[in-house]
Design goal:
Blueprint: H1 2-20, H2 22-50, H3 55-62, H4 68-83, H5 87-115, H6 123-162, H7 166-174, H8 176-194, H9 206-230, H10 238-272, H11 280-303, H12 333-336, H13 351-360
Biased composition (Basic residues): 326-340
Organism: Secundilactobacillus collinoides DSM 20515 = JCM 1123
Protein name: Ribonuclease BN-like family protein
């Protein structure tokens, strides 16, 4: 029974994988990710340059995530971004990042919706949601980068007041792997919880986020080993090979990200059954509409005066009369003509019969 259930789960996983079209969607996603990487470095670099943070601190957090050849190529570019900042490049970086990253999120959302079985979505709401999400994501990444970069500086400044030991300072600088793991996991969890246009259960999201985190970190190590053994053969075309490796790495990273969404969709359908379509924006609008209706109903109840129940008194007849005459319709001429009653047998005589007998006599 367990073997049969596992086979059914794998079959459902393969069905969701095919419906999401992971291979083609990963290529589109990697293309827009490639276009948004350098503008993000522009934004973060210009913001960090104004705070006088050393570029070596930021590069220490990027080194365990990126492959070695990619890191060697990007390190001088990132170092120049961090050491030279200007408002012009900052504004250009923000515009290009918002455009390319919103396209990447839109492609990711289409693929994840197809994995959940949702094919028709509102394009306007999806694009607006992608724009808002990208703005929030860029702000979060910037704040996270500033926090990582300022951690050692803040501890160095707080050392005279709080008597922080040098071991603690070294420990904060050496926890790059745990911080990278937690950062990627939180990013994947937020993506899988907010981007799909369905009612996502949070207890089914962590599995895909965990697979994405382990896959990304393992992918970086695999590419590092690959470059370590084959870097001597690509010295003549080092720049071209670096960009090829970067594109392949981003393609595989996008595929891992989509596979995490496919796993979440399969697990939710396996345990919950039918997946309900619901966009986050529509959900917010529905909740706001319901709260407004409740507020208006409560306001109407407060504005209306309370109805006082008064006891009804019995109607008394007017003076000089015995009983209240019921109001009846006037009789017609045919109704006024009454038939003369007849008596049969020796029954008791009524007043009309007695009058009739005296008239005969």
């Amino acid at each position: 029974m367990q073997k049969r259930s596992f086979k059914l789960f794998l079959k459902a996983l393969w069905t969701h994988y095919l419906s999401a079209n992971v291979s083609d969607s990963a290529s589109v996603l990697s293309y827009y990710m490639m276009m948004s990487v350098f503008p993000i470095f522009l934004i973060v670099g210009n913001l960090i340059a104004f705070l006088n943070i050393k570029s070596a601190i930021v590069l220490n957090y990027l080194k365990p995530v990126l492959p070695s050849s990619v890191y060697q190529t990007l390190a001088p570019v990132i170092r120049s971004f961090l050491e030279q900042g200007s408002t012009g490049t900052l504004s250009i970086g923000i515009i290009v990042t918002i455009w390319s990253a919103s396209k990447a999120v839109a492609a990711f959302q289409r693929s994840i919706n197809q994995a959940y079985g949702i094919h028709n979505t509102n394009a306007v709401i999806s694009r607006f949601f992608s724009f808002i999400f990208i703005v929030v994501l860029v702000i979060a990444i910037t704040l996270l980068g500033l926090l990582f970069g300022l951690s050692e500086t803040l501890m160095r400044l707080a050392k005279p007041w709080f008597q922080i030991s040098p071991r603690l300072t070294q420990f904060v600088g050496s926890i790059k792997w745990p911080i990278s793991f937690v950062g990627i996991f939180l990013l994947g969890f937020i993506l899988y919880a907010i981007v799909p246009s369905v009612r996502v259960k949070y207890r089914y999201v962590w599995a895909g986020a965990l697979v994405t985190t382990v896959g990304w970190l393992g992918l970086g190590q695999v590419f590092s080993i690959y470059i370590r053994y084959f870097e001597n053969n690509v010295t003549s075309y080092k720049t071209i090979s670096t960009f090829i490796v970067l594109m392949v790495w981003m393609n595989l990273a996008g595929m891992i990200l989509l596979i995490g969404g496919v796993i979440n969709a399969t697990i939710q359908e396996w345990f919950q059954g039918e997946i309900q379509e619901m966009h986050l924006v529509n959900q917010i609008m529905d909740s706001a509409r319901q709260s407004r209706k409740k507020h208006l109903a409560k306001k109407q109840q407060v504005g209306q005066p309370k109805a006082t129940v008064t006891p009804t008194k019995a109607k008394t007849p007017p003076r000089g009369t015995g009983k209240v005459k019921p109001t009846t319709r006037p009789k017609t001429r045919s109704q006024l003509k009454t038939k003369r009653p007849t008596t049969t047998g020796k029954g008791p005589k009524t007043a009309v019969n007695r009058k009739h007998d005296t008239a005969k006599k």
